[in-house]
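INFO  loader      accepted 1 record
INFO  loader      residues=339
INFO  predictor   begin
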Amino acid sequence: MAHTDAWLALHIEETLEPDLKICDPHHHLWHMHPGRFVEPDYLLPEIVRDVTSGHNIVSTVFIECGSMYRADGPEHMKCIGETEFVNGIAAMSATGKYGDCRISAGIIGTAPLQEGDKIAGEVLDAQLLAGNGRFRGIRCGATHDASPDVPNARTNPPPNLYGDAGFRAGFKHLASRNLTFEGWCYHPQIPYLTDLAKAFPDTTIILDHFGGPLGIGPYAGKEDEVFEAWRKSVTALAECPNVIAKLGGLVMEVNGLHWEDLPKPPTSQELMERTRRYFETTIGLFGVDRCMFESNFPVDMIAGTYNTCWNAFKRLTADYSDAEKAALYHNTATRVYRI
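INFO  predictor   done
INFO  writer      dumping tokens
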């Protein structure tokens, strides 16, 4: 399987621009994950291995993934367990005993916003408390497609979660608590996120993984058609000044590029050339001060090592100015997540 050490070891690269300061604003932590192409355990030893593999990663942001929920208590409060778990790892990293990088300096959890006003406020306040000064926002996966060949989010959201009245009643609690929102949807749903961003201009919204361009099921073999539909939608989204774009997460199974079927991992050059138009279009629309590179690890391990992932980004920005690189690799992320 593509996630094995043996497969990853088939292609090793020298680190490009090893001194460039990086905040990785999107990774997960978990234990006993059932995914086919990711490590079942991605905890402090594994992420320390990756962030010290060559690049100058100085801080990271954890993004919710349904990990370590509480077994007991009210259903809507079980997600607090994930923040408690991650905050413990962040506290270990903060001792400096695991290197200079501050793992999970920012924490993005979740909350059942669709349950409305009272419950959303209660959960968000509990998340802030559990984060002990590190909690920065939430993500509620909205990924949904009518095709049975496209997997929906683990919470099985409706087609337009972002337009649900109950969800919006909960969403209004984010801005007053200075919390951000991660928009994770598939590319046909981007207009729903745009509508949400316009309805809540005081809430910072981060577009995850380019808005999920699909390449499986009914979208397989339609790369150019999908790109044009995506480009049209993301152009409208970029007009919302409260939206930030994350650059990464384009090598997942849903993207349909099938890196996992290769006999050995692709090079960083191959990775970038295959997806370059998404990066260049997004940076052109949002600008470097509203874009940030993300590893999406260990999910993006499906296409290679952490070192290769960041090398691919650096190939794209080889001719960028120092100020542009500083924004894309570090400053936008640390500003948005207050690190």
